[in-house]
Amino acid sequence: MRHLLLTFMALIVSSILAANVAHAADGPFQATGFKVGEMTADSAIVWTRTTARPEPNLADAPMATFVMSTGERFTPNARRRDANPKGRITAVEYPDGKSAADICYAAPGAAAETRVLYRAMGEDKWMETAWAAVDPQSDYTRQFTLSNLRPNTKYEIRIETRSPDGKPGESLDGGFRTAPAADQAARVVFAVSTGQAFTDQDREDGFQIYPSMLKDDLSFFVHTGDIVYYDRLAKTPALADWHWQRTYSRDTNVDFHRQVGSYFIKDDHDTLIDDCWPTMKPGSMFEMTFERGLKIFRYQVPMGERTYRRIRWGRDLEVWMVEGRDFRSANNEPDGPEKTIWGAEQKRWLKQTLAASDATFRVLISPTPIVGPDRASKRDNHSNANFQHEGDEIRAFLAPLKNTVVVCGDRPWQYHSVHPETGVREFSCGPASDEHAGGWRQSDFRDDYHKYLNVIGGYLTGAVDRDADGHPTLTFRYHDVNGQVKYEHIVRDER
Question: 381 to each of 230, 279, 280, 308, 404, how far by Cα in Å?
Fold first, then answer.
């Protein structure tokens, strides 16, 4: 009897898997999964991509060789950090006439069409988009905007694929939540992360933070930038796409993004190189430019009209996500009133919308620090001396805004700090793995700034809720990579 029951259960599981991966033997496939992003109370954007095979290339596939200005040839280990030889990279060579699609960890794209089926959880009837071809000029991606959705609702989603001649391919299932309406008091839980270097994975299949975050029943996730690290190897647009392919074909990443809607912010490493700005012309990137980096980011993640935006999540929470690369002055310019990271238009938008918001809690998520403290050698953010004028302006603006806090990425350590002069509070989410953590000494606890300091990997969560008396609260928790809470701070309604 027990054997028959196990056999019956196995058949059920097999049927479910078959339904979720239809005609997978023939392709097209979705080795890089899908992502849902930019959720509002009534809309969301779905990112899809089709691949030639169900899995990325193996680790023992060939790797590109980089030709140095010294004449030396350098073939890196794509999984481990290793230093470049001296000199400037002048060319990329592939073995046996191959391309970036053939090297280790690549997930080469395939011509195909995709569509999105979606329905509120528990409903019978699927709604569907029209079929649309993926774009080979955008790494075989296609994005769909879903509209007329219900607020504060869990949606089931299915991404279907078919070949150009109409043969069905792999389909993937998942889900996401829409935001509560602006007048609705609702519990909202979100997570924030940064510093996701492929060479710093802490599992064979990716990053431990992703299965850990799934246990938190998240409403949404925010990646603050440094999602991939172009600097050393992304010398061409094809190799920049390869960075996204290898990261988002990791099992942990695919599984997480099938179940949780996300917002993505870019920073320097997923734009061009470390601490970059628009007018920088780094000779070592011979085929990559700042402008090309901006274009690639917009097709590699679900993204609306602008990369700076604000999202309302119910009566008690509004979130601002700012753009820190597109509008900035050169880091090496003298500081002064005209020097900027955010640019005049974005800064004007931010000040007007923050001041006008009637949300109980206002959370500004920045790809780089506003409060710090940071290392004295750094020159790339508002807590650094060379952007002090705009930093002082922003901190002075934020200081009198009740229930307003800053969450930042970029720094590979966790901290909660309070600016000693203005009282502005900042929560640095920390990197995606312990392997990536560093850059600050654990013993260097600054009493005038720090409330919490931990040089570890993990993530930050924020939970908006109401206490037993009906008063709104915003609780921040720092987690290690396994999800264990290391620190908690409650922001209470100060109005």
Answer: 20, 17, 16, 17, 20
